[in-house]
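wait is this the right file?? whatever heres the structure
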C-alpha cells in the first residue's frame, strides 16, 4: 500500500512539474514573439493607414503616446503610402474620444478632413480592428498599415489577420511607451498577458466551433 501511495505521489509530483514548466514556457514564448515583432516594420503601399488609440489627457490633450502614434500615421500619409487615415479609439475616462483627439492633430498637421475616417466606438484592440475592418469593408479596402507602439504590434497584427485584413506593421519606435524603459517594461509585461488571454479565447472559440 505504501509503495502504491509513493508511486501516486511521484506521479502527481511529475504532473505538477510539467504543468509548472508549461506555465513558465508559455509567457516566455509570448514575450519572445512580442519583442521580435516589435522591431518588424513593413512599409508598403496600402488602402489605408490605421492608427490605434491610446489615452486622452486633461484639457482634451492627446497623451504623449497617442500623439506619437498619430504623428507617425500622418508621416506615412504624407509619404504617400496610403490615401487615407483611419483613427480608431472610443471615449475613455476623459473627452474627447481617442479618434477625435487624433483627428484634430492630423488636421492640424495638414491632412484634409475628407481623408480621415473616424472609428470612435472601440474600447479594446479587438474592437479597434473589428470596427475599422467594417469601415474598410464598406469601401472595398483590405490592406492596411497598422500603426501602434512596438510592444502592441504582435497582438494587433494577429487580430488583424484573424479578422481578414492584410496588415503591415509600422511600430512607432519613438513613442514614450517604448523609449522610456520602465514604461516599455510595464506595457510589455501587460501585453504578454493580453496576448495569452486573446489566444486562450481564440482556441476556446475554435474548439466550440468544432465540438458543438
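ok assuming it is, sequence goes like this
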Amino acid at each position: 500500500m505504501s509503495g502504491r501511495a509513493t508511486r501516486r505521489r511521484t506521479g502527481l509530483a511529475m504532473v505538477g512539474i510539467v504543468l509548472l514548466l508549461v506555465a513558465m514556457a508559455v509567457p516566455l514564448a509570448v514575450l519572445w514573439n512580442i519583442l521580435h515583432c516589435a522591431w518588424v516594420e513593413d512599409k508598403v503601399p496600402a488602402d489605408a493607414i490605421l492608427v490605434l488609440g491610446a489615452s486622452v489627457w486633461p484639457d482634451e490633450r492627446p497623451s504623449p503616446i497617442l500623439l506619437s502614434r498619430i504623428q507617425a500615421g500622418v508621416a506615412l500619409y504624407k509619404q504617400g503610402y496610403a490615401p487615407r487615415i483611419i483613427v480608431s479609439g472610443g471615449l475613455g475616462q476623459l473627452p474627447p474620444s481617442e479618434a477625435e483627439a487624433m483627428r484634430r492633430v492630423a488636421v492640424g498637421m495638414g491632412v484634409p478632413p475628407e481623408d480621415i475616417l473616424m472609428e470612435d466606438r472601440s474600447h479594446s484592440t479587438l474592437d479597434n480592428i473589428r470596427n475599422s475592418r467594417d469601415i474598410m469593408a464598406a469601401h472595398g479596402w483590405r490592406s492596411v498599415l497598422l500603426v501602434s507602439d512596438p510592444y502592441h504590434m504582435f497582438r494587433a497584427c494577429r487580430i488583424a489577420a484573424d479578422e481578414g485584413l492584410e496588415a503591415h506593421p509600422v511600430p512607432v519606435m519613438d513613442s514614450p511607451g517604448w523609449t522610456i524603459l520602465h514604461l516599455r517594461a510595464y506595457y510589455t509585461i501587460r501585453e504578454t498577458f493580453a496576448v495569452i488571454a486573446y489566444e486562450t479565447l481564440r482556441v476556446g472559440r475554435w474548439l466550440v466551433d468544432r465540438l458543438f
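The chain has a mean pLDDT of 91. so i think its the right one actually
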